Amino acid sequence: MTDGARRAYRHEMAAAKAATGGDDRWRHLERAHIVSQPDPWLHTCNHAAMLALALRQRDRGEALGQALRILVAAPGSMTGRYPEGNTGRVSAGLKTPMRTPTDLAVALAE
């Protein structure tokens, strides 16, 4: 994982924690997910944070999906088998690649 991606991850996770609304929290967690995918530990931690938010919001479908993603996050990162740009939400699908926002693409390339 690049230093730029690690900085972006920390920034987005801090922003998620400081966010006052659920939609803002999800947006920051999704952005953190994109940059965390190459790192098994951070990728798993990100899904744990997503699970915690889903539980807080009593979203059973999202919580179940995040529990599954916690199990596959580290192996996916270690083998490089993760969908680039994927936001990590249940609605995004487990294997669906997505467009990486330009600022995060730069951080991943640094």
From TrEMBL:
Listed InterPro entries: DUF3703
In which organism is this protein found? Answer: Tomitella cavernea
Q: Name one Pfam family in it.
A: DUF3703
Q: What is this protein called?
A: DUF3703 domain-containing protein
